[in-house]
Amino acid sequence: MANILKALIDQLDLEQLEVNLFRGMSTTLGTPRVFGGQVIGQALIAASRTVEDRPCHSLHGYFLRPGDPTLPIVYEVDRIRDGRSFTTRRVVAIQKGEAIFNMSTSFQIEEPGFSHQVEMPKVPAPEDCLTEESIIMRAGDELTEQMHQMVNDRPIEIRRVEPINMFKPEPRPAVQNVWFRARSTLPEDSALHQCILAYASDLGILGTCTLPLGKSFFTGLMTASLDHAMWFHRPFKVDEWILFAQDSPSATGARGFNRGNMFTEAGILIASVAQEGLIRDVD
Fold first, then answer.
1. Which domains does the chain possess?
2. Is 90 exceeded by the pLDDT of residue 133?
3. Which residue from 195, 147, 237 is spatially nearest to 8, judged by alpha carbons?
4. Active site residue 106
5. Cα–Cα distance, 175 to 135 (Å, whole number)
6. What is the SS3 assignment for 39-66?
């Protein structure tokens, strides 16, 4: 298993301090604050540790304060309800005595039911798309140490259907399609696959609403995630290729709304995501 992916798994293996109380450590992706996907993934692990034999079907979280990657994060789980079919948990992530993130999540027993789904967009296969690394490396002299770290330390392999130059972006429709997968094979643990998918769901979705502006956070935009929601529809493996089809229906009031559907290579819809983020022009 690749070292960077093992490091992510170790990061998600929270230390239990007490009943309903867990502690996790952070790493940085080249920014001075904790990556939001890490907090989502760790919060979901904390909630999952208090639930037996029921997969998560949805989560809804709010980012309250920037996290400090040099300090541990304490996750407090509130066992809201244990029903016959559904289990509900609330998780608060705490640093220095203050909440930096809170999340509600629901788990459901596996049961049969009606089924339908939207069709996967017709896009090139992942093998025919450029890697995130090759796109970023084209920047040459404009490539900062921060970008080097972001490229080299990602446990998720990313291939973009529509290449984007973050240093010289041009206005374009608020739509993007991205293939991704874990960099090596993962253990057969459905809860772990869900948590890593939640981690990956925050890798770039906020940038969808900035595409019509022709700007990025490298060219005069301040961006920050405000809230994040996710629904798990069907079983999946995150070490196999997943298409993240994203769009942004609206941006207003210094906020951009983004949404996305995740499909297997076979076209099966496995999850949906929605996120609103802060976008401010700082030029």
1. 3-110+124-281 (2.40.160.210)
2. no
3. 195
4. no
5. 18
6. HHHHHHHHHHCCCCCCCEEEEEEEECCC
For the chain, percent helix, then strand, then coil, each to nearest 5? 20, 40, 40
Catalytic choice (176, 202, 239, 246): 202
How far is it, in rounded angstroms, from Cα 126 to Cα 177? 11
Q: DSSP letters along 168-211, please?
A: S-----SEEEEEEEESS---S-HHHHHHHHHHHTTSSGGGGGGG
Q: How far apart are CA 59 and CA 255, in angstroms?
A: 21
Q: Decide if 58 is catalytic.
A: no
Q: How far apart are CA 194 and CA 13, in angstroms?
A: 14
What is the distance between the alpha carbons of residues 66 and 118, in angstroms, rounded to a whole number? 35
* pLDDT score of 69: 93
Please indicate whether residue 275 is annotated as part of the active site. yes
CB 39 within 8 A of CB 7: no
Q: Which of 38, 42, 176, 225 is catalytic?
A: 225
Q: d(Cα 148, Cα 139) in Å, to the nearest integer?
A: 11
Angle between helices 36-48 and 3-12 (to 10 degrees): 50
- Does pLDDT of 25 surpass 70? yes
Structure confidence at residue 171 (pLDDT): 93
Q: Quote the tokens at residue 271.
A: 């999850």
Contact criterion met (CB below 8 Å) for 255 and 195 = no
Query: Which residues, other chains included, contact 77 with Cβ-Cβ below 8 Å and sequence gap of 6+?
Result: 20, 21, 22, 46, 47, 49, 50, 89, 90, 91
